[in-house]
User: What shape does this take?
Amino acid sequence: MATYAIGDVQGCMEALERLLAHIDFNSTRDQLWFCGDLVNRGPQSLEVLRFVRKLGPTARTVLGNHDLHLLATAAEARKPHQKDTLDAVLAAPDCEELLGWLRQQPLIHHDPACGYTLVHAGLPPQWDLTLALRCAREVEAVLQGSEHTRFFNKMYGDKPDMWSDKLKNWKRLRMITNALTRIRYCDPEGRMSHNEKGAPDSQKTGLLPWFLLPGRKSTGLKIVFGHWATLRLSSEISAREQIYHVDTGCVWGGKLSALCLESGRYHRVPCESCADINQVVEKPAGSTRR
Assistant: This one.
């Protein structure tokens, strides 16, 4: 039995199929962890959703920002973006079933047995595991309840950008959601900067990747995350900080990656169906994809 953490698929079903063949995935033996962003920008979001849902308990997935954007678009809380590739999902006869399943997925998954924690983007420096799980459950309860449409109408925005337990109502839920699905850089006080999307060393002075903030309370926790296609994490930093990055920019002309949690080995396949898309992962430091 093996557990594979897979990076942002973003509708690249062909790459996912080739990756699973490459690792000799067996649904009766192995388990898949998806780090979020199953959908959008790639050509086969509908097929990816159907496939992962059909896997049942063989697969674990956490929600990413593009997954939430799909849900918000379906709820008419947000207009589709020009680059969205969600039409097939929204027009599918099983759309309601797929979206209902997606809303039931968590924002964070922790497995005490193997000691790994799965999240889409990362954790703010003020959160330890207990607080991260508690905050995630607050948002999940709203997503899975009758107030989810109101939540989607309040979800967008970059503020608040710093955690405080005094935050309340929609501001609190927005901050939690942004932390788990959008975080990349923070200032030394732990204030998130959502405008910086490039590789480390391209950011504004005074900002650090969330995992390099001195004194972050999740230090020692083994965290698997995606979201950051331009990040090239060295094995030294990964080992020292116990963070494991699996988004290698599949939909941007890069590769789709899987990390075997038992062996620590990475497996990667190129995304041939998206090879003609702007190859952000090959741009020099300082470039962004938007």
